[in-house]
C-alpha cells in the first residue's frame, strides 16, 4: 500500500491507498485525513502495511529531514516530490521550476485535462490561482494571502485589534464593530478577487473548467451558492484530493 502525505503550511493531510491508479481515476472517492502533527501522522500509520511513502511538502529542510528520519526508522522508503520543467504531460511556466511551490505544481498536474483549459483555486493559508491549458502548458498564476493571513497582518497595526475570527459573511454588510469591519471587508475583498479571476481568465485565457481545493474550499463554495451575482456553482468543482492526484501521477511509474 501507498501512504501519500501533503504537508502544507498549516495542515498535514494524508491518505493510504492500495493502487495509485484508484486515486488517478477518481480522487474524490478516496478518503483523506488530517493529522495534528508529524508525530500524530506516524502514530496513525505505523501499524499499516505500507510499502512506499510519497510526500508533497512545502515545509523547510529540517522538517522534511525529521519526517524522513521517522519513516526510515519504520523501514519505509520515503520519496519527496519536486517541481520540475516537465512531469506527467505538463510543462511548467516558471523558468526556474524549483521556485514553484510543490503544492501548486501537483495541483496543476492533477488538474490537467486534454479537453479543457482549467483554472485551479487552492484556498488555504494562501490563496493561489493557476491555469493549465488543454495542451498541458501551465500558463502561470497568482499568490495572495488567505483570510487568516490578512487578519493577522491587520492585527499588527496599533489601532486594529481583532477579538474574534468570524464565519464568512454571505451577504454584503457594513460592520458596526472592528471585528465586523475587518471580517466583512476581508470576505468581500476575497470574493471580489475570486469572481474577477474567473471572469478575466475566461476572457483572456479561455478557461472553461474550474477546480477548487484547499482547507477553505467548502467555505467559499457555500459563499458562492448563496451569492446570486457570483459564478454559477457548476463552474466550481470541488477536488479535495487534487494535490494527491498530482502526486500519484508523477510517481505512477514507480
Order of H and E elements: EEHEHEHEEEHEEEHHEHEH
Helix content: 25-40%
Q: What is the CATH class designation of the largest domain?
A: Alpha Beta
Could you give the order of strands across the largest sheet? 3-2-1-4-5
| Radius of gyration from the alpha-carbon trace, in angstroms | 19 Å
Q: Care to count the β-strands? A: 12
Integer count of domains: 2
Q: Give the N-to-C terminal Cα separation.
A: 13 Å
- Could you tell me the CATH topology label of the largest domain: Nucleotidyltransferase, domain 5
Shape: globular
Per DSSP, the total helix count is 8
SSE layout:
Layout: E1 2-7, E2 12-17, H1 20-25, E3 33-35, H2 38-45, E4 52-57, H3 61-73, E5 77-80, E6 86-87, E7 90-91, H4 102-111, E8 118-123, E9 126-132, E10 138-145, H5 147-155, H6 178-205, E11 209-213, H7 217-225, E12 236-238, H8 242-250
Parallel strand pairs: 1-4, 4-5, 8-11, 11-12
Antiparallel strand pairs: 1-2, 2-3, 6-7, 8-9, 9-10
What do you see in this structure?
The protein is of the alpha/beta class and 254 residues long. It folds into 2 domains: 2-80, Nucleotidyltransferase, domain 5 (2-Layer Sandwich); 91-243, ATPase, nucleotide binding domain (Nucleotidyltransferase, domain 5, 2-Layer Sandwich), CATH 3.30.420.40. Helices cover 36% and strands 23% of the residues. It has 8 helices and 12 strands. It has helices spanning 20-25, 38-45, 61-73, 102-111, 147-155, 178-205, 217-225, 242-250; strands spanning 2-7, 12-17, 33-35, 52-57, 77-80, 86-87, 90-91, 118-123, 126-132, 138-145, 209-213, 236-238. The strands form 3 sheets. Strands 3-2-1-4-5 form a 5-stranded mixed beta sheet, with helices on both faces. Strands 10-9-8-11-12 form a 5-stranded mixed beta sheet, with helices on both faces. A hairpin with a 4-residue loop joins strand 1 (2-7) and strand 2. Helix 4 (102-111) packs across helix 8 and helix 5 (147-155) crosses helix 6 (178-205). It is globular. It starts with a strand and ends with a helix. The model has no long low-confidence stretch (mean pLDDT 89).
Amino acid at each position: 500500500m501507498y501512504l501519500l502525505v501533503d504537508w502544507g503550511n498549516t495542515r498535514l493531510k494524508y491518505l493510504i491507498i492500495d493502487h495509485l491508479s484508484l486515486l488517478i481515476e477518481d480522487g474524490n472517492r478516496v478518503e483523506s485525513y488530517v493529522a495534528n502533527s508529524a508525530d500524530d501522522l506516524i502514530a496513525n500509520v505505523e501499524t499499516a502495511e505500507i510499502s512506499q511513502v510519497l510526500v508533497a511538502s512545502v515545509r523547510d529542510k529540517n522538517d522534511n529531514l525529521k519526517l524522513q528520519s521517522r519513516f526510515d526508522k519504520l523501514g519505509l522508503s520515503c520519496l519527496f516530490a519536486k517541481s520540475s520543467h516537465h512531469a506527467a504531460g505538463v510543462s511548467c511556466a516558471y523558468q526556474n521550476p524549483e521556485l514553484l511551490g510543490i503544492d501548486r505544481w501537483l495541483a496543476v498536474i492533477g488538474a490537467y485535462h486534454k479537453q479543457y483549459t482549467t483554472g485551479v483555486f487552492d484556498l488555504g493559508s494562501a490563496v493561489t490561482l493557476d491555469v493549465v491549458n488543454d495542451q498541458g502548458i501551465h500558463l502561470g498564476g497568482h499568490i495572495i494571502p488567505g483570510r487568516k493571513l490578512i487578519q493577522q497582518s491587520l492585527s499588527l497595526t496599533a489601532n486594529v485589534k481583532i477579538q474574534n475570527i468570524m464565519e464568512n459573511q454571505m451577504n454584503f454588510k457594513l460592520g458596526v464593530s472592528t471585528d465586523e469591519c475587518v471580517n466583512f471587508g476581508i470576505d468581500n475583498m476575497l470574493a471580489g478577487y475570486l469572481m474577477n479571476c474567473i471572469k478575466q481568465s475566461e476572457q483572456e485565457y479561455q478557461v472553461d473548467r474550474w477546480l477548487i481545493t484547499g482547507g477553505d474550499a467548502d467555505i467559499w463554495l457555500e459563499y458562492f451558492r448563496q451569492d446570486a451575482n457570483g459564478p454559477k456553482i457548476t463552474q466550481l468543482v470541488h477536488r479535495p484530493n487534487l494535490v494527491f492526484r498530482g502526486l500519484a501521477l508523477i510517481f505512477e511509474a514507480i
